[in-house]
Amino acid sequence: MPIVTVFRSRLRPGVEDAYRGLADQMSELARAMDGFVDEKLFVADDGERVTIVRFADWASHRAWASHPEHRRAQQRGRDEFYAYYDISISEETEHRRYEHP
User: N or C end of the chain: which has fewer CB within 10 A?
Assistant: First the structure.
């Protein structure tokens, strides 16, 4: 069963450029991991950021969550970048998709 992480955050003022570099590295790392399904980033008009990441199962999600480079990035995020963040993780119990032909 796929695992969905919803990561909401707001950056501290003036850190956007440095953060973008680290975020790009983490996105690239996640995409290279076994079990990665997809990722989307949205930025609201008020500056709140929402990243949605899906992994195929709990094992691949845990591998991502505990990856040493990701753990270092998490600490750097708390030390340097985030004014706040909120993480929700859940099992995807149903998935539907429509695509216009």
Answer: C
